[in-house]
From TrEMBL:
Protein family: In the C-terminal section; belongs to the transpeptidase family.
Protein's recorded name: Multimodular transpeptidase-transglycosylase )
Pfam families: Transgly, Transpeptidase
Location (main, coarse): membrane
Amino acid sequence: MLKIIAKAVFYLLFFSAIIIGLFVWNIYEKIQHKTQNLVDYKPKIATQIYDRNEKLIANIFQDHYRLYVPYDDIPPRVIEALVAIEDTVFFEHIGINFEAILRAILKDIKARKFAEGASTITQQLVKNTLLTRDKKIMRKIKEVLLAINIERKLTKEQILERYLNEIYFGNGFYGVKTAALGYFNKNLDELNLKEIAMLMGLPKAPSTYSPIKNYELSLSRANRVVNRMQTLGWITRNEYQRATKLKPKVYNNTLSNRKAPFISDEVLRNLSHIKDLKTGGYQIYTTVDITIQDMAQKSIKQGYDETIKRIQEQNLTKLKDGDKYDNNVTDLNGAMVVLENNTGEVLALVGGVDYKKSAFNRATQSKRQPGSAFKPFIYQYAINSGYSSVSKIPDISRTFEAKINGKRKLWKPQNYGKTNKGLISLEYALVHSRNLATINLVSEIGLQNLYNNMQEIGFTGVPMDLSITLGSFGISLLELSGVYTAFSNYGTMLEPILIKKIVDKKGNVQTFTNKQIPINDEAQAFLMIDIMKKVVDKGTGKKARVRGIEIAGKTGTSNNYVDALFCGFSPNIQAVVWYGRDTNKPIGHNESGGKVAAPVFKHFFEQYITYKPQDNREFRIPNEVKETYIDGKKVYFTNKSQIKYSNEEKILLDDDMIF
């Protein structure tokens, strides 16, 4: 009888084992393909943007913020701390720890619920990447089967590399490299033992042990890690004691870490053709200097505040006089572009006063009228055509017949202040931004000739009529900055460049260069630089003067004070400043480029020369430039632009000089 019972039990167990085996095999057959996701591990890695000095500007990512670190770059102490607290026999098991499983089953039975996980590092990796986190028997079976299969296909080192790059460390940080930079502002090889222990104590409960939310609890958990390492003999007693006393400084860094959002947005727009830009782990190196960017941003805000103050004072005056006024100044904004003269590299790009209020980039996404800031191009063409700084130009009023919307109308332009000066020098006309003189100059050199030249330079949308003299066409601030390098770079125009190189996750490097377009020879360009210096010294740009350094530039004010600009440069860098309303309404009465934008240029440059005291302070004079003196005043000329004047004719050269 006993033999029969034993036999029955044997067959029962045998067939049960077969059934269970078939059941498990069936499950394994259905899920084994999932392991390929870990074998061909391709995590979404954040892209990082740096300035020219390799300072981080922004982290760009999709869904998860993760930075990748290869196994060879992970410090041994990190591996030891992880294995000590999570899976002591990791290097010995086949993916599961039978002893730990048995211990967990007993605790689960005692607690009458799933209280103990008993998961190895391999199982944790499987659970976090291939399965859900539900505590169900079927999920646990799948976890075990996949863990064993993973151990067959990957080395222990490969498993650890995937684990430390995949696991969540709290506060939005995925991967150990991300967490080290996020919590401690350190690379992995810069961490001390206590910081390593704090990180390795996080995966079990990232929120509970967060050093930001629960600092003391995080320290306690880290001490357990360190204690475990000492118990295993992996650190000495002295190392343990030193580590337990440490209280590392923890930072609460934002995930994006965007120090210059207008820059990072522009980089994304420029590289929008890269499909995996936010997930491919690229390192993007820009031409920007984050310190100069901060200076520019502060200057734009300072100028904004000053302009708002003036507008409000104007409104109070109008109110007292019983006039109506528009008290809404929320649409007022500003922008600035700073370039390096001889490279075209963008050092700063400010698209607005406050990015949080408006992310619209007015330096690149908006086209505004340059007004009189366009005039130097007209005068440069005249100089190249044989005019000199003392060539005479009539500053007199004329009436023109124009065709507007198919109808013929009379156009009678005026100077600012509605005054005429008579016969004046070319230099005086530009220094004091005389509209009538400029219009008469264009009539002399030929509108068609000028228009063709502007097309050759690269201007688009320029009108084929005399309103060209007033800069009545749209251009972005970045584009305007580019064409202005024809002056600041002594005749060679440079395409503005924002991105220097991109390094992909495999280390492949893509570099970027910009176009260089010869417009003038150096000598001809210097003649214009000299006149633009006088714009700042004694003309409309006087408020842009900076003590101790030569500045050349030109103010710009579009019709009805809608746009206010100052485009200026030193021997090394150039800055273009703009203010206006997003609604294209007038800024305010008499709010010209010289009043609004020029002081901001000065504010910026005063900060800049403190930051870069080694920059050149005087403009270089090309060898081909010649000089003479007229009534004690130095005048430059070239073979192409000879000085031609008659002593019998009276020409207004300066406010205090007629010859």
